[in-house]
User: Fold this.
Amino acid sequence: MTEALQQGNWTAKPEVISDHVDLMRARALQASLDLEERAFEIGDTLPPLWHWLYFWKVAPDHALGPDGHPERGGFLPPVAQARRMWAGGRLIFHRPIPLGVRAERRSEVTRIEEKQGRSGPLTFVTATHTISVNGIAAVTEEQDIVYRQPAAGAFERPPGKPPQAEPRWQREFCVDPVLLFRYSALTFNGHRIHYDADYARDEEGYPGLVVHGPLLATLALELFRAHNPRALVTGYRFRALRPIFAGEGFTAAGAADGGLWIIDSEGLVAMEAEAESES
Ligand SMILES: CC(C)(COP(=O)(O)OP(=O)(O)OC[C@H]1O[C@@H](n2cnc3c(N)ncnc32)[C@H](O)[C@@H]1OP(=O)(O)O)[C@@H](O)C(=O)NCCC(=O)NCCSC(=O)C[C@](C)(O)C(=O)O
Assistant:
């Protein structure tokens, strides 16, 4: 048996959330992303990554921290750095999740790592989730969250690089606050950086509302699915390298080998990703 992770007086504890993979949340994301497909029906397969709409952590209002997430020190460790971002993840899709079923997500913090970044000290926290239907694993996911020190001075984007390969497909986006609000609501994510412009600017030092990492990861994978309609996605990995803000144009781009990018308005990679699939 492996020992539970510890930080000071905090010990990692598994969390289990059961949910109904209902039709309406999937249809609401389908509409929010303007996907030109027929509306989902019960029994259809939930697209890969759309499990992020389910297994909400419904913390009571009094248990929220200043950033709108549940206070730290419960499921997540009491990391001192103020600013949280979603850094990336690695997923394996073992079997499809049909819409309409009950499913269960078991989660545990499995890694805490301190790093020195160009922007200052960073703490990476990895949560491992397993989603099961009738006790059989459908998705395993390692989710990386990064915590950063409070903003000091004017906002500076991390340096970036253009995509390393020639994209074969691309689609342009410009996310507005309405989509950010709808995605926050659909994922029950209270993080203020996505809808409270004063907080995002004055407390976290961003130039505007921040586009969710999971939304960008989903837009990239949806591009892959649109161009590979028969492929069964079996794995996905992504890393958020530069933030994107509401109102900024960006491009989702993909190569034939499953390489995917979110490219920002400066032509630099904001997110790199890779889809694995079977035909
Ligand atoms: C993370 C930032 C601050 C580091 O920027 P930096 O310049 O300080 O770091 P660095 O110097 O590039 O790298 C330092 C170390 O960190 C690693 N590293 C660097 N980046 C990553 C990454 N993504 N994933 C994993 N590791 C990473 C990197 O490999 C290196 O490790 P090493 O020392 O071992 O070589 C910078 O890359 C950045 O700003 N990325 C964009 C983040 C973003 O926009 N996320 C989505 C929006 S926030 C969100 O959706 C929130 C949500 C949904 O509400 C929610 O709370 O869950």
Notes: The mean pLDDT is 96. DSSP finds four helices and twelve strands in the chain. Residues 213-227 form the longest helix (15 residues). The pocket of Citramalyl-CoA is lined by residues 84-88, 115, 117-119, 122, 144-146, 148, 158, 189, 191, 210, 212-214, 239-243 (CB under 6 Å).
